[in-house]
Structure formats: structure tokens, C-alpha cells
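Class prep. Write one:
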Amino acid sequence: MEMWAVATLTLVAGLVDDLRSRKVHNALVLALLPAVLLASFYYRGFDGSVTGLSAAVLALLVTIPLFAMGVLGGGDVKLFTVFALAVDPTSMFYTLLYSVIWGGLFGLTRSALQKQLFTLVRNTYKLAHQRQRLQAQELHKIPYTIALLLGWFTQLTFLRAGGGL
């Protein structure tokens, strides 16, 4: 098993937890943390583990503002940070970028299928212009771990196409 598989399994575990309970539990993240750290040291050695640690720190720095804006849940932030331990900063960044794109596509599709696209546009406008704080039930929520996993698969696809893995 290589680190890309460890990273994938980390996100899959989070997805299963999220789909079952609509949240990523701290117990899962705390169980994954030492497993990913040990795998990182085993497969990449000390230097690779330092690279993973730097990716995790950057993941926190990037995702905490997204949590503060309500884009990501706290469990998503913690899961993504543990995931970042298994990759490098570049893969972490692109995975997050692609997940935002996937999340946007899912949100638009879900809203259109539920005939709530106008509501989504209105709520987005309100948030963007900070005219008022939206109530939780007004926000369109999706299990973001799906977008994170698809963002990672997109990054893996581009890495393999470019000969990176």
C-alpha cells in the first residue's frame, strides 16, 4: 500500500461516517490520526512525514476560514487535515480546490432538482453581500466528504495523467 491509498482510505472512512450520521466524528479522526502518521513514516520516512506535516498545517490554515464562513463543517476540517498528512502541500491544495468545484456542482444540481435554485442564488447573494445572517435551515447543506473524495480522485487523475504517481 502506498500513501495515495492511505489518503484515499482516510477520505472513504470519513465519507462512510458522514453518510451514516451526517457528521464526521472526532473518534474517527482520532483513530485515523496515528494510523496516517505511522503509515507516513513507514512509507515516506522522516522527510516525507515532515512534508505531510507541512501539508496538514497548511490544510488547517486554509480550511479554518472556510469553517468560519460556514463552507466546511468542523469534522470536514479535521478529516481534511488528517488526509493532508498523507499527501504533499501541492496535492492538498489542488484536492481542496477541486473539492470546492465538486461541492459547487453538487449544490447547484441538488438545488435544481429540488426546484430551489432561486433560493440558493438568493441565499448566496445575501451571504456575499452580508446583508443578513442566514438561519441554518436556509443554507443548502451537502455531505462535503463526497466533494473532498472526488476532489482527491480528480487530483489523482491529473497526477497519473502527468506521470506524477
Summary: The chain has six helices and no strands. The chain has a mean pLDDT of 88.
